[in-house]
Structure formats: C-alpha cells, structure tokens
Design brief:
Elements: H1 10-22, H2 31-36, H3 48-68, E1 79-82, E2 86-90, E3 100-101, E4 113-116, E5 123-127, E6 130-136, H4 138-152, H5 160-166, H6 170-189, H7 191-199, H8 212-230, H9 234-254, H10 259-286, H11 292-313, H12 323-339, H13 343-349, H14 355-369
Parallel strand pairs: 1-6
Antiparallel strand pairs: 1-2, 2-4, 3-4, 5-6
Length: 370
Amino acid sequence: MRKLFRKWPLFCLGAFLLITVVAQATGTVNKQEQEASKEGEELTRLNSEDKAQLIEFLRLKKMFGSSVWPNFCEAEIPLIQYNDQYEFLVAHPSPPAPWAVVDNDTFQGSPYHRRNAGESQAFAVPVGDLWAGSLDTLSHMNRSMKKQLQEKIPQEKLTPVMIKMMEITPAQHVVYLFHEAFHAFQAVQVHDRFLRANGVYASEKHYPFEDEGFKNAWNKEGSLLAAAFREKDESERHELIQRFLEIRTKRRSDASLSQKLIAFERELEWLEGLAKYVEMRFSELGSSQKGETESKAYRIVRNRLQADFSWRIAKLGDLHGDQRFYLSGAIQAMILDKISPSWKQEIIRQENIGLEDLLQTAVVNKRRLN
C-alpha cells in the first residue's frame, strides 16, 4: 500500500514548500475556512460531483485513449473512488463480497457497488479477477490536503489564499485518475511484471538516497534527459542520450549498486514513470480540445505539470523516495516518442526490457544508419 504523501502531485509538494515560507509572514485563517476543511458528513453513495468526474474520465478515455497508449481506449477498467467511510466501484460486472450494490442509485443507468473503506489506496486494486484504478474522490482529496496543511502550518499562519493554492481542480483530479487507471492497465497487460515492479519497494531501505556523489550523478542524468528532450537536432539528441546512459552506468558502478537496486530503479521507472507519462499526455491532449471551457481547464493542469516537471527534472537526486523515478521514467518515455515510434509495443511485449534499454537501442540503430 502506498502512503498518501507519495501520491501528492509533485507541483503540490513545491507549492507546499512555498506556502511554508509565506506562512512565516502572512495573516490568519478565519473560522469559516477552518470549518470548511473538516471532514464532511458521512457519504454513503457517489454524489453528483463524483459521478461527473467519472463521466469526464470516460469521455477523455474514449476521445484520446488510443493516442496515449495502444489498446487503452478499448480496455475495460473498473474504477474506484473512496472517502473515509466507503469505497465505490463502477464498471465491474460482478465484484465479490464484501462489495455490495448501492441501493436506489445507479451510475450511467447501471448498478454500482461499495464496501467499507479500510486501507484505501491510490493505485491499482484487485477486485475478483479484474483490476481497478483507485483514487480518492475530489472532495476527499482536497479535505485531506487541507488537513495535512493544518498539521504542518500553525493555524494562525494559514490563510484561505494558501489553502486555495493547494486545491485540486476537477481537471487535475481526472488526470490523476488516468494515472491510477493506467496502473490497472499494466496489471492486466503485463501481470507478472506489474507484481514484480510493485515488489521492488522491499529494496527501498537499502537505496543510497543520501549519498552526495550519487545524488549529483542523478542530477546530471536529469539535466541530460531534459536537454535531450528539448534538443531539435537529431544527432545532438542522440549524443545527449548516450551521455546520459554513460553517466547512469558509471553512477551504478561507483556506488557498487547491486542487481536488486538496479532493478529497483528500472522497475519503478516502468511502473510509475509510465503512469506519470500517461497522466501528462492526457493533460496535453485535454488542453487541445475544441471547447474553450474544457481546453482551458486542462491547459492550466498541463502548464502546472510541465512547469513542475521542468523545475524538478534537473534535481532528481534531491527528490525523496520514489518521486525521482516518476520523472526519470516519464521523460525517457517522452524522448522515446520522438525517436522510436514502436517503443510502447516493445515495453509491454518484452517483460524484462527497461526504458533505458530502448534508448540504448535507438542510439545504436542511429549509429548503424550513419
């Protein structure tokens, strides 16, 4: 199970640091805002907002799913939204107990199910023979965010403006739901690898996160990947990729990284990096819609995600826990979009291949052509 903190969007972590600084010099939160941040009344069914988020997810999936990932549009992926009391499951034909039909309510004309919330998580969740993408509801996500802010910042320093800065918008929430739904897609498409990738967290405690030389090398890798993504000249881009691969190999050698810890990097780039890539691609495509209202909402999400990504990619070594692998995996995928059109079929078909392997193959093929 993942801690909630791991699933905070990266730009929110940056905003949190900004808010912490601003809080030292700004005013107080009023009583109304304090009350609004408390947990709401018990919710026993999906409300109109929850259903609207799911409907929007399905609309974008149908519209852009094939452009983001092969077969993703057609994939039947049940979805879970949860609050503190219940988890709600839609688009599953017959979930086993303790899931039970919600009486006197439907989702798009069909029954849906719920069970008591226990160890709810933002990830892929097995439900019978299927896997569901799971994420807390928009309102629950925002209440959790406010609660954590209030635990970190003295109430007399916390203003409504600060809370508003951290608030998750409906478009952001839909994009995050795609991240978790893609995990369910991974679990179905490449089941053994999904389980293996999720299992590498057992090695996390042995990973040399705080070693200064190791961190600096990671920062160089991020800078080279960012440069390769921005580079317009094809030959120069391949040179930057080759430098990245060389520094990565040297970093692992200098740190005497075991095969388990190398697998820790590679598998998390596959697991979380690809899901981050899908998240960002849906924000980009959502911003390209013809309707101004819809495109504006996703344009804001896209811009925030890209700004945060650009800021953090050169600081990969400074990121804690698994966050660096979200970004390092996603940007390798974004580069592969430019240099290897068939990479998505390869990364799914070959269970032991890593994103870095596909970059290496592209570099080698380029040299052969020259």
